[in-house]
Amino acid sequence: xxxxxxxxxxNRPGVLNRITNLFSKRSYNIExxxxxxxxxxxxxxxxxxxxAEDEKDIExxxxxxxxxxxxxxxxxxxxxxxxxxxxxxxxxAVNPQTRAEIYSLIEPFRAxxxxxxxxxxxxxxxxxxxxxxxFIELLKPYGIKELARTGTTAFLRGMQRSSxxxxxxxxx
Amino acid sequence: MNQKTVLPEKKxxxxxxxxxxxxxxxxxxxxVEVIFGYPGGAVLPIYDKxxxxxxxxxxxxxxxxxxxxxxGYARITGKPGxxxxxxxxxxxxIVTGLADAMIDSIPLVVFTGQVATSVIxxxxxxxxxxxxxxxxxxxxxxxxxxxxDIPRIVKEAFYIAASGRPGPxxxxxxxxxxxxxxxxxxxxxxxxxxxxxxxxPNYLQIRKLxxxxxxxxxxxxxxxxxxxxxxxxxxxxxxxxQQGIPVVNTLLGLGGFPADHRLFIGMAGMHGEYAAxxxxxxxxxxxxxxxxxxxxxTGNLKHFAxxxxxxxxxxxxxxxxxxxxxxxPVVGDAKEALSQLVEQNGKKxxxxxxxxxxxKWKAEYPLWYNTESDNLKPQRVIELLHEYTKGDAVVVTxxxxxxxxxxxYYTFNKPHAWVTSGGLGTMGFCVPAAIGAQIAEPEKxxxxxxxxxxxxxxxxxxxxxxxxxxxxxxxxxxxxxLGMVRQWQELFYxxxxxxxxxxxxxxxxxxxxxxxxxxxxxSTEEEAKTVLQKAFALNEPVLLDxxxxxxxxxxxxxxxxxxxxxxxxVKP
Lengths: 172, 572
Ligand SMILES: Cc1ncc(C[n+]2csc(CCOP(=O)(O)OP(=O)(O)O)c2C)c(N)n1
What we know:
The complex is a heterodimer. By secondary structure, chain A is an alpha+beta fold. Chain A has 2 domains: 2-81 and 157-166, ACT domain (Alpha-Beta Plaits), CATH 3.30.70; 84-149, 2-Layer Sandwich (Alpha-Beta Plaits), CATH 3.30.70.1150. Chain A has helices spanning 15-25, 55-66, 99-106, 129-139; strands spanning 2-10, 29-37, 43-51, 71-76, 82-93, 112-116, 120-127, 144-149, 153-156. In chain A, strands 5, 6, 7, 8 and 9 form a 5-stranded antiparallel beta sheet that branches. Chain A has a 4-stranded antiparallel beta sheet with strand order 2-3-1-4, covered by helices on one side. In chain A, a hairpin with a 3-residue loop joins β6 and β7. The longest helix of chain A is centred in the middle third of the chain and has 12 residues, at 55-66. Chain A is elongated and about 55 Å long. By secondary structure, chain B is an alpha/beta fold. Chain B has 3 domains: 8-184, Thiamin diphosphate (ThDP)-binding fold, Pyr/PP domains (Rossmann fold); 203-364, TPP-binding domain (Rossmann fold, 3-Layer(aba) Sandwich), CATH 3.40.50.1220; 378-555, Thiamin diphosphate (ThDP)-binding fold, Pyr/PP domains (Rossmann fold). In chain B, the strands form 4 sheets. In chain B, strands 3-2-4-5-7-6 form a 6-stranded parallel beta sheet. Chain B has a 6-stranded parallel beta sheet with strand order 11-10-9-12-13-14, sandwiched between helices. Classes of the chains: A alpha+beta, B alpha/beta. Chains A and B meet through α1 and α2 of A and β6 of B. Residues 398-402, 425-428, 451-454, 477, 479, 481-485 of chain B line the site of thiamine diphosphate. Chain A: Keywords: Amino-acid biosynthesis, Branched-chain amino acid biosynthesis, Transferase. Chain A: Residues 4-79 form the ACT domain. Chain A: Belongs to the acetolactate synthase small subunit family.
């Protein structure tokens, strides 16, 4: 199954290494990982999408992450009500015949063209992973020359601001 | 070993010092009694300060020796063992010890030298990415960037190493950071927002456990090393007695519950006692206290405690439910949890029949070995050790058959008298760990029970034993083989003894003699008695080369893939 785990961490050297290590130690495959600043200085926010056997695996990895000294909070938001977004850059081949067709795909997906050359278009799209995948499928027949995806970044919907609360132990 | 500590009068007051001076002060503030270390280029500035810092330092002959000695010290005292190694090869030589300490939850604070900050990352002479290497085998690690960070980082490291579930913490100090001056508060506030070990158990879970006990017919407590780390033996005894619940130990938990107690069943696991393993298989309530359901303890998980409701008391929430589905999770310190359980004074289980059943198993299938041959039996050696030390010694072992025999036959009635490498199973652990144990307990008899193979992995530390005149009794259980490997090859690989028999062995007696350590050899029980008497009469180090039955196997045992109820080699 696919799990989504978000982390708030102290921005210290080595913290990312510690995190990825825990996944590889248990041979869970990280599908994507995004890292960036959070709303608080010195605190970064990480979103990990992980392939695991089952919920028990995700619970175990969540607990192991929780033990790390530089990790402030771990949330398993798999299957919860979340806002999740990913960005992809797609360089696709064009010719005078296909140009209009491709442009007609862009609009319904709210993608945008960010670079144009004689033989290529570079398209930027944001959204949930499924939407991006659907878009990529549609473009494939035209010839995708390059593709770069950021991976998912996410948090819970609603009013909660989670990065300031303390660590929670899932079993109490 | 008393150091005067010169803490700044007021918090927040800053002092100006070189990094290495901050380090010395921090070590004194943390009342470090002894450092196990080995110098080299990157730590020369630190060693220069150590020259007259007044902190005792022990120069083991290999960094692996230093860290295992620190582990031995930490296992006995519960205080973090302190290690210093130089960069590059010095640092990589301690990797095994870190992994050993990590898996057995031993508190260590380890300092490594590093090349100067200006050349980190350039493959400079003796550079190794020790942070990268040790990340998976440390509870936490740091690289110090400026001298002014030293007091804070050292304080955090000692706290992290010894609190919660203990473990090793590594601090990497680049050479220039030790030399340059910085300005810092030498007694900084601890601020670790991401590290808050949970000590107090949840009341509702405690209540659930109390109720589970009152409804149980066949309860059993599985007591692991967590009991020892939490210094919870007395609470465990009080709880088991109050509720009439029998107790089994893990290998690392030995001593946490007195072996001569009427409620003690024995050690469980691959080479555990039949009654203990049957109790785990048949129980209807399993209360694990500070044990982590290692595969050598559980056997095949499919057959493990299938009839039981599982309650698990552990300070590390990640251990709960990791291997065994758990109905009643109690996250917290073992001593806290056990004292609260005693306070609850719940209704006892109706366990009389169960206790009878256990007594029958114990009486019918005790530990046993074949006494027909004239050769010296290794099990007998351990029994003799118990006899001559009145069961009151600190026993340190290496890894292999002798380790299992020591666990089986040296019955432990008191806590903190058993030092063994359990989780990692590190050969070469024994001799240096015994050094640390003897330093921790200078007045006690320390016996190092070691195989002839494992002994040769760290025998260079005899030099330290001789130099410090540590009265350790080194007992080589010499079967002229990698015994445990040989046993598995006999049982599971059609007696194809691939590289497990020694064609050549040194004279251990002469080797000891070279270090000026008295040594004797024995091959029969009578001779063994004589040399053991001699050894224990001498208040100095002695090495005994005991030639035991070479083909002896450790029994009973659970073959790989089998369940706890499928023991082989039980008493016929
Ligand atoms: C560093 C290391 N290498 C290899 C092993 C695998 N191993 C486990 S027991 C054993 C044999 C130990 O022989 P010895 O020290 O003579 O003890 P015995 O089993 O004969 O009592 C070996 C090789 C290990 N545990 N540790």
